[in-house]
Amino acid sequence: MPRNTNKPAVQGAAQALDQLKYEIAGELGISNYAQIDKGSLTSRQNGYVGGYMTRKLVQFAEEALSKGQMV
């Protein structure tokens, strides 16, 4: 049973975050990230996906702030 208890801050954002995760994994050259066993990947590979997700989300927020939009 998965032990992940992380919940998105915004209701309904889980699907969008998963899609972003799979897109970033594809950009990093990890194919079929949705289907593969994450335990078979190195912690570095999994860390890259999470790190790039964070970088992308911060970039989105900075762009929204610079345009005067509420985040």
Q: How would you sum up this structure, described in words?
A:
This protein is mainly alpha-helical and 71 residues long. It has a domain at 15-25 and 37-66. It contains two helices and no strands.
Residues in helices, as a percent range = 40-55%
Q: What's the number of helices? A: 2
Largest sheet: none
What is the arithmetic mean of pLDDT? Answer: 88
Specify the overall morphology. Answer: globular
What descriptors fit this protein?
single chain, 71 residues, mainly alpha, 2 helices
Task: Please outline what is shown here.
The protein is mainly alpha-helical and 71 residues long. The chain has a domain of 41 residues. Helices cover 54% and strands 0% of the residues.
Topology:
Layout (H helix, E strand, L loop, with lengths): L13 H14 L15 H24 L5
